[in-house]
Amino acid sequence: MITQSQLIEAGTVFGLLERQAQIHGDRDLLVLPRAVQDHWGHDRDRLRYAEGLARSRALSAAYAAAGLGTGHRVALLLENRPEHFIHWLALNALGVSVVPVNPDYREDELDYLLGHSEAVLLVRLAERAGQVDAVAARRSLPVIAPDEAPPQIAAPANEDPPGPQTECALVYTSGTTGRPKGCMLSNRYFLNWSWWYAAQGGPIALRPGAERLLTPLPTFHVNAMGHSFMGMLGSGGAQIIMDRFHPRQWWQTAIETGATCFHYLGVMPAILLELPESVADRGHGMRFGLGGGVHPDHHARFEARFGVPLLEGWAMTETGGAGSMCDTGEGAQGRHIGARCIGRPDRPGPALECRLVDDDGRPVARGEPGELQLRAPGDDPRLGFFSGYLKDAAATEDAWRDGWLHTGDIMRQGPDGALFFVDRKKNIIRRSGENIAAAEVEAVIAPLDGVAQVAVTAAIDPLREEEVMAVIVAMEGADRAELADRVFDACAGHLAYYKAPGFVVFTDRLPTTSTQKVQKAALREWAQDPLSAPGCIDLRARKQALRKARR
Fold first, then answer.
1. Pairwise CA distance, residues 147 & 125, whole Å
2. In whole angstroms, what is the distance from residue 424 CA to residue 434 CA?
3. pLDDT digits over 131-164, tens only?
4. Cβ-count burial of 276 within 10 angstroms (0-12 exposed, 13-18 middle, 19+ buried)?
5. Domains in the chain: how many in total?
6. Among the residues of 288-425, which ranges form H helices?
7. Same domain as 304, residue 420
8. What is the model's pLDDT at position 293?
9. Which contiguous run of DSSP H or E holds residue 23?
10. Nearest in space to 348 (alpha carbons), one of 494, 244, 199
């Protein structure tokens, strides 16, 4: 299994591929189920390590000839396809950072990402031309399909050779103040995922060259691109790629591809439990699932029915493997099933220090809830974490104030040192694995005619963990049903579909503080059961229809 010293020697993600291809050249690196091959029009079901290295090298030479190098960024709109990984690896060899693009983004969101990231090239699927080419043209940004030669890049690269601290990817994550923040992630950040995974024991221990990880999660998030892929790359395993989560074919796909493990979001076990029982429920070879957010009521039921332990974990884009934790069951009390346990901070892998503090920054007593704060031990508390928010030094320093990374998640620590998730402190809505900034949605709704005040918050959703709820004070004389429709249409027109409100609640006044800030905690009763709130309009069916229309 890969060691810390070997990762440091590799230096970059591409360097790790070079090393692993020497050892695992004939083993599978990427695998496509038959249904995914048909959907994407691919004529091959796998890519082996040696082939992946050869293709990446050839593509890297073409990029180098076009003048790309360290200091450049290239945006990738390649969905979950093998091309995403090949282009990423090819660019990484040159020190170029990639900017994964969410295919659900609308025009305004795309324009912001391409401009803010200062990408010098966009690589997109041919079928995405109508979605992005006009936006790119307004910024004079060159665009190519994945099989086209890149044009000559005018902006010069710098001469620094790529290494562990070189930016590897710029991944956008929703912040609490509106626009998504660009998290600068280094090669060290990504290599830490390999180190973390290789160090784990118990049911999550990876067998060199033997694992096949099935994931439907998107490559514009760090789970599929970092946690899953780097875990497999570091162990000589294979990543089984899906275009998205297909619950009815899930277990059959696992059987077909020989999957041994998978990554999940809490919504996935909930959906799989609703399906009729089948012989495939136990006909697979899955050893474990790793994820977060499984409903406590579903945890034991899932394991009993499907015979697969669900190992709850925790990480965020800002932490990567440097701050990742998982309830592997290796502590004195074993696993904490159905308790929202994320494991212990003294787990194997990158060394980690942790504390739980109250609102005044004072450590809380064992068993009491407090905000989770993390850092690496030693002289550099940020070692292996994100390198900062692009063009936002103030937000970066605020996240690291007092020398600790403020996660915004409330935890409590049990007698055995294990941490248990309690709540989210930040003004973030977590829906089916997507982080949604309430302020971003509020910014679309507030200027609409008929809206006097608006507060967007998270409502409890038994399937998707949370749903977007907009609480609105309407202007006198406004038709509330018509206004709710316009609110939804405005959000759908400017934002990715999942950010649109699933619930709109009308009220005569919003609870505020003495300084006129909305007290969102006072909306908690409605958030627990939105349909019980007077004046609630349920828009979830429209939201699902919008999702299907854009698929």
1. 9
2. 14
3. 999 999 999 999 999 999 999 999 999 989 999 9
4. exposed
5. 2
6. 296-306, 393-399
7. yes
8. 87
9. helix 13-24
10. 199
